[in-house]
Write a structure and sequence with these properties.
six-stranded mixed beta sheet; alpha/beta; Rossmann fold; 11 helices; four-stranded antiparallel beta sheet; 22% strand
Length: 273
């Protein structure tokens, strides 16, 4: 469990990025953190693994304050995939990149080889095993960064803008993979602007604005609230926008799922036949 209590954070420049955040993330939960640029999303999640320490308040991971534990120790259970993979990658080959943390955590050689192979296959990057990560595209580097975290099987996985640079097929794979991780009782926290991705996954959402939590709840309730999404400078999912335009026909306006939308529209067509 991650508990955030009256969290404030001010950067050395004087920028107050977080202003009184209170939040609890239960084990096995799937949470999306959303909001406009500068809302404090990445600053917030960097507190979960100790990359940043509170200016005021505290963050507890399984009851232990992040002030009292090193980043290295927190990293064993909390994996963080940065928005920009170049801030994370440094090894000469993809294979070495994935193996690095496993070696650092003293896994046995046989286990390291097995986990590296597993991660390469999982993220569809086996063909780049001996390639420098910096020779790959942005989307491919992002998958290498994700593979390097998943290889050691952390309890909590934080993904900062994971869909950026991914094509439609890779986004679909990523969505299914995240849902699979969550089904396996992993805690997954995603920072994202991608409302369509969130709508398809339908996690719990916290909506941030100006360093505070504006609202929280299931995606269906948050992303279909026109006042809230306007305050947070995000747009509703496309399906929701269509149903909002058709509200005069008596259609519901809290629809974010394509399959649900199809069912509703087919039902109306059958009524008219």
């Amino acid at each position: 469990m991650i508990e955030v209590k009256d969290l404030h954070f001010t950067y050395p420049t004087g920028l107050e990025a977080l202003r009184g955040i209170n939040l609890t993330i239960d084990d096995g939960e799937f949470l999306a953190v959303m909001g406009q640029n500068g809302a404090g999303k990445t600053t917030l999640v960097k507190h979960f693994n100790g990359l940043l320490k509170p200016t005021k308040g505290e963050v507890l991971v399984d009851g232990v304050s992040t002030r009292d534990v090193s980043v290295a120790k927190l990293a064993r259970n909390i994996g963080f995939v940065f928005q920009n993979p170049d801030h994370q990658l440094f090894s000469e080959t993809v294979e070495d990149e994935i193996a690095f943390a496993l070696k650092n955590f003293d896994f046995e050689e046989a286990v390291i080889k097995k986990q590296v192979d597993w991660a390469l296959n999982l993220l569809d990057i086996t063909q780049y095993r001996k390639t420098s990560p910096f020779m790959l595209s942005g989307g491919e580097r992002k998958r290498v960064a994700l593979a390097s975290i998943l290889a050691w099987d952390p309890k909590v996985i934080i993904l900062d803008e994971p869909t950026i640079g991914q094509d439609y097929q890779q986004k679909e794979k990523l969505q299914q993979f995240i849902l699979q991780l969550n089904a396996q009782k992993k805690t997954v926290v995603v920072v994202t602007h991608d409302v369509e991705f969130v709508a398809e996954c339908n996690p719990r959402v916290i909506l941030m604005s100006q360093g505070k939590i504006l609202a929280e709840g299931i995606a269906e309730n948050i992303l279909t609230n026109q006042k809230l999404v306007a305050q947070a400078s995000i747009v509703p999912p496309q399906i929701t926008q269509i149903f909002l335009e058709l509200a005069d026909l008596g259609l519901p306006t809290n629809v974010i799922d394509v399959h649900e939308a199809t069912k509703i529209l087919l039902g109306r067509l059958r009524e008219r036949q």
